[in-house]
Design goal:
By secondary structure, the chain is mainly beta. The chain is built from no helices and eleven strands. The strands form three sheets. The protein has a seven-stranded antiparallel beta sheet with strand order 4-1-9-10-11-8-5, with no helix packed on it. A two-stranded antiparallel ribbon has the order 2-3. Strands 6-7 form a two-stranded antiparallel ribbon. A hairpin with a 5-residue loop joins β2 and β3. The radius of gyration is 16 Å and the shape is globular.
Amino acid sequence: MLSRSCPAAWKRGFSLYRRRLEEDESGEPVAVYDMERPDFTAADGEEGAVCWQPVQSWQTSGRLTSGERPGEPGEQPSGVLQGCLFSALEVSAFDRLQVGEELYEVRSVQHWPGHRKVLAQRIG
């Protein structure tokens, strides 16, 4: 269960790269990300870090999945994460998150009283 009282040892750091729209050579808007300079960075266990967890239900077909696959040390996340933001950090759909060595794209931000639930899918 995701809660405000997540132990600091469980909080994983991440870097946030916000999506910006620029025009290509034909004048069409395209999404760009400044992957050299993150818009926000939090280290493991510090204020602003998030307890990312594999999502429990992602399929709209009614199929339940944990988003995990079996591996040598046990189940490993296979591409979809969820986490609760209790801070005022601005996060939008299609922003990118670097969590550890993996790059994720924010798919949705659900607003709840007191927090926001972020769903992100691994890309690349």
